[in-house]
Specification:
Elements lengths: L1 H15 L1 H9 L3 H10 L2 H9 L4 H12 L7 H12 L1 H10 L2 H18 L10 H21 L1
Helix pairs in contact: 1-3, 1-5, 4-5, 6-7, 6-8, 6-9, 8-9
Length: 148
């Protein structure tokens, strides 16, 4: 079960937290991170196995717990906002192969806003947060344009 959960958590990071995945890889801590996270739910999956729960139920409940502190994804939030509201810039970045790199830079630029708004599941739909992040994206893109 541990190996299955590690694979699922890795897949989740690829889909939702590419920034974290890249950072962990650069620091050579990805394997440790994945194993440590999965070890944190060992009692949960062992208890569910004793109860003879189906594998898909065990995986779903464990993934819910494993990703609790990773939701919502800042990476997904910024990327989606960039693609929806700054479509031309996002397409240019994607075509140049730098979209992921720029989204990671944007997350860093937006960090103070995420902190002020205490970004989480309860406020990810906030219009104020959206407009604040959009303003920072616009400023970032303007600075990038003048840098070239």
């Amino acid at each position: 079960m541990k190996e299955q959960l590690i694979k699922k958590l890795h897949g989740y990071l690829v889909q939702n937290h590419l920034d974290l995945l890249i950072s962990l890889q650069e620091e050579h801590r990805l394997t440790h991170y994945l194993e440590h996270k999965v070890d944190s739910v060992k009692d949960l999956y062992e208890g569910l196995e004793v109860e003879k729960r189906p594998v898909y139920v065990i995986e779903a409940l464990c993934m819910e717990e494993l990703t609790r502190d990773l939701r919502p994804s800042r990476f997904e939030y910024v990327r989606t906002l960039l693609e929806d509201e700054f479509e031309e810039d996002a397409l240019r970045m994607s075509g140049s192969g730098i979209l992921t790199y720029e989204v990671i830079n944007l997350i860093g630029a937006c960090e103070p806003i995420f902190e002020v708004f205490a970004f989480g599941e309860e406020n990810e739909e906030s219009k104020e947060l959206k407009y604040a992040i959009m303003g920072m994206i616009a400023e970032y893109l303007e600075n990038q344009a003048t840098a070239y």
